[in-house]
Amino acid sequence: MSLVNANWLENNLKEVKILDASWHMPNTNRNAYKEFLSEHIQNSQFFDLDKNSEPDSTLPHMLPTKEKWQKIISNYGITNQDKIVIYDNSDVISSCRCWYMFIYFGHDISKVFILNGGLKKWKIDNKKITSNLTSNNKSSYATKEIKSLVLTKLQIEENIKSNDFQVVDARGIKRFEGTEPELRPGLRSGSIKNSKNLPFVKCINKIDHTFKDKDELIKIFEYTGIKPDRQQAFTCGSGVTACILAMANKIINDKNPIIYDGSWSEYGLK
């Protein structure tokens, strides 16, 4: 049960730790933290995807070190035993990136959930929102890295020859085909050789930001040429929307998320 709905969360508000992991593309001119201060789900804390990624990398949204993650999560007052619900108010369903980070750093995958539809669906369902901030006591969170869940550029390059797994790109088709320029300067256009393209928006219901149901997702994956009997690794522009496809794959096949962390921000460097 990687997804929970608004009714479930409403009934379990005091039993879980809640994070708002909203993040917006730079060209949207939206400020996720200011939006959080204005309205959010009761008891939630803001998870800043930019600040909580690796600060010493020239690439965006790279996983932090184990030590940094331990400090970050301890500051939220989260323990290793906690159930965690993550949501967002973003068009790029950024909560999935936070979900992946917890799993990579060893939190029990059965205790990390995405609120299906995020704040948008929560409001559609007429659930209460607040501007009151939540305080917490720091915890002593312990981390361990599951390194098999992240891939390097070298592994991606080696796979072009070996074809051990399928690489699936979550970017839009024009960026994938190289007919539309990249959003970040210094990147060439195009995609990883032999990779498949599944724009993440195809997995999401536009009206309420929920994931499409399992049967629909199976058909979408099959149409794209994604084989359920093979291992998949997901990529995108900077490692955020790749995690949406990883969640969809979890819904379909109950597979753990495997992400090329550098994504096109690294592979597409000129």
Chain-wise SSE layout:
Blueprint: E1 3-4, H1 6-11, E2 17-20, H2 32-38, E3 44-46, H3 66-75, E4 84-87, H4 95-104, E5 112-115, H5 118-124, E6 150-151, H6 153-162, E7 166-169, H7 173-177, E8 196-197, H8 214-224, E9 232-235, H9 242-253, E10 259-260, H10 263-267
Parallel strand pairs: 1-5, 2-3, 2-4, 4-5, 6-10, 7-8, 7-9
Helix pairs in contact: 4-9, 8-9
Structure characterization notes:
- The protein is α/β, with parallel strands linked by helices.
- The chain has two domains: 3-124, Rhodanese-like domain (Oxidized Rhodanese, domain 1), CATH 3.40.250.10; 147-267, Oxidized Rhodanese, domain 1, CATH 3.40.250.
- Helices cover 31% and strands 11% of the residues.
- It contains ten helices and ten strands.
- It has helices at residues 6-11, 32-38, 66-75, 95-104, 118-124, 153-162, 173-177, 214-224, 242-253, 263-267; strands spanning 3-4, 17-20, 44-46, 84-87, 112-115, 150-151, 166-169, 196-197, 232-235, 259-260.
- It has a five-stranded parallel β-sheet.
- Strand 7 (166-169), helix 7 (173-177) and strand 8 (196-197) form a beta-alpha-beta unit.
- It is globular.
- The mean pLDDT is 96.
Q: C-alpha Rg, in Å?
A: 18 Å
Number of domains: 2
CATH architecture of the largest domain: 3-Layer(aba) Sandwich
Helix content: 25-40%
Secondary structure class reads alpha/beta
Question: Numbering strands along the chain, what is their spatial order in the largest sheet?
Answer: 1-5-4-2-3
Quote the average pLDDT: 96
Instruction: Give the SSE order as H and E letters.
Output: EHEHEHEHEHEHEHEHEHEH
Q: What distance separates the N and C termini?
A: 41 Å
CATH H-level superfamily title of the largest domain: Rhodanese-like domain
What's the shape? globular
CATH topology (fold) name of the largest domain: Oxidized Rhodanese, domain 1
Secondary structure: number of strands: 10
What's the CATH first level of the largest domain? Alpha Beta
Low-confidence stretches: none
Strand content: 5-15%
The major β-sheet equals: 5 strands, parallel
* Count of DSSP H/I helices: 10
